[in-house]
Every structure is written in C-alpha cells, then in structure tokens.
Amino acid sequence: RDSVATVYLGEKAKTRRLVLVGIGEAEKVTLESMRRAAAAATKSVTGKKLKSLTVAVPSGISLDAEGFGE
User: Fold this and answer.
1) pLDDT digits (tens, 9 = 90+) for 10-51
2) Sequence-ordered list of residues with C-beta below 8 angstroms from that of 44, at least 6 positions apart, any chain
3) What's the CA gap between 31 and 38, in Å, rounded?
4) Could you identify which of 10, 34, 37, 59 might form a hypothetical disulfide with 21, taking C-beta atoms 3.0 to 4.6 angstroms apart as the criterion?
5) How far is it, in rounded angstroms, from Cα 21 to Cα 9?
6) pTM of the full predicted structure?
7) Cβ 34 vs Cβ 23: under 8 Å
C-alpha cells in the first residue's frame, strides 16, 4: 500500500511516464486511501515538467466521488 513505481515509456510515447501507486486490498480501499495514493503520485512527479496528471481507479472499486477533491 502507498508504494510508488514509475515506468518510463519513452520519448515517442504519447504518455511518457506511468506512475503506479499501491492502494492495498480492493475490499479495504476507502476514500482516504485513495486520497493518500493520489498524494503519493503527485509527490512523485513534483518538479517534473508535466502537462497533466490523471488518476485512474481500478475497476471493481466503488467510491463515493463526492468529497474526493476536498
């Protein structure tokens, strides 16, 4: 949980960097654990020249999105 791995896909790839963050067991994922994962991903790319950052939630994980950005 909260472990971060960065995969570099190369200069020619549309997405050059893929950041993977562990969130733990699917049954135990909460809004707070997703916030921590998003924070870990953001921290890992701070200072990098990025145009955007996208957070994807694995299928099978259901979270109430209200309050996610708070």
Assistant:
1) 889 888 888 999 888 888 888 888 889 889 988 998 888 888
2) 4, 6, 19, 21
3) 11
4) 37
5) 17
6) 0.71
7) yes
